[in-house]
Amino acid sequence: YEVNADPLVIKGDLLLAQGDKHAARDAFEAAAARDPDDWRAQDSLATMALEEGDAGEALTRSERAAIAAPPQVFAPRVRLASLYLGAGRADEARDVLEAFAKANPDQPQPLVALGRIAFSEGRNEDAARLFDAAVALAPEAPQLLLFKARAELNARRFEEAADTLMNGKKEFPNEASFQFELAGLYGVQQNYPSARDAFAEGFAKWPDDNRFLVGLRLANYRLGDFEAALEPAEHLASRPMASSSDHFWRGLVLERLERFDAAIRAYETALDLDPTSWVAANNLAVLLTDTDPDLAVDFARRAAEIAPPNSAVDNTLAWAEFS
């Protein structure tokens, strides 16, 4: 019993559930001292260190937990891989995950983690292959199909990405993300009529999902159908929690429709909500140059102060000051 850490681990879990982190830490540390190979104690201490921002301690504890944990337990190993990634040790992260995948060929989790690493590194072909293997092990998980489609898209395998998304729509008809990402795929291919139709289909089925309205606004704008773009732009900007971007886009559509007074008010609202919106300030300067040149100069200078190096902003300022 003196070398059995179970009672201390259980005590730590109970104290942690009650919100007493200090006492829980003492219990876990006592458990780890009693049995350094108790992976549960080491893993709990790693989690607590991570929450407190002590990455070094978290890494040390995670290494011990990963070594001691039963071969089928994934949690301490994926945490270790994540810490290795954060420390710039991607090769070691992959080694941990690949070893687990080899020991557990029926588990999709390490394949997903490896796929996400590959995706983040721009190795899209590898990512698609890994996600495909994970889908084969867990066909009931829609997120894996989405991961696969995104990797295929980034690899510019557009037909395969479309097939994956269409299969996702068929297998998971209540998952809006397949419809949304299919519409986005059409947009990436600059097939704006198909993108518009797909966004419209999604909005008809999921009217509370504002992603489809955002897509409809953009697709119609790209098609030059500004009247059609105005309806979703007005809807998005009328929401109580409408963002600066929503009001900016409303202003942009109104400007294209030559409804300049309404566009100015929309840009002003966008700038009020986000004082760093240099595009709103720049567009206000452009619209006000003829009617209120002094105010136009103020907005142009404001845009120039907050914008990254940008010739369009410089040109607006020069013209406003000239006017």
Spell out the blueprint of helices and strands:
Elements: H1 6-17, H2 21-34, H3 39-51, H4 55-68, H5 75-86, H6 90-103, H7 109-120, H8 124-137, H9 142-154, H10 158-171, H11 176-188, H12 192-205, H13 210-222, H14 226-237, H15 244-256, H16 260-273, H17 278-288, H18 293-306, H19 311-322
* Beginning-to-end CA distance, first to last residue: 88 Å
Largest sheet: none
**What class, by secondary structure content?**
mainly alpha
Q: What shape does the CA trace take?
A: elongated
Output the helix-strand order: HHHHHHHHHHHHHHHHHHH
For the secondary structure, the number of strands is 0
Unreliable stretches, pLDDT < 50, 5 or more residues?
none
Using only CA atoms, what is the Rg?
27 Å
pLDDT average, as an integer? 92
Number of helices: 19
Query: Helix coverage percent of residues?
Result: over 70%
Q: Can you offer a commentary on this structure?
A:
The structure is a single chain. The protein is mainly α and 323 residues long. Helix content is 77%, strand content 0%. It contains 19 helices and no strands. It has helices at residues 6-17, 21-34, 39-51, 55-68, 75-86, 90-103, 109-120, 124-137, 142-154, 158-171, 176-188, 192-205, 210-222, 226-237, 244-256, 260-273, 278-288, 293-306, 311-322. Helix 2 (21-34) runs antiparallel to helix 3 (39-51), helix 17 packs parallel to helix 19 and helix 18 (293-306) packs antiparallel against helix 19. The termini are far apart. The model has no long low-confidence stretch (mean pLDDT 92).
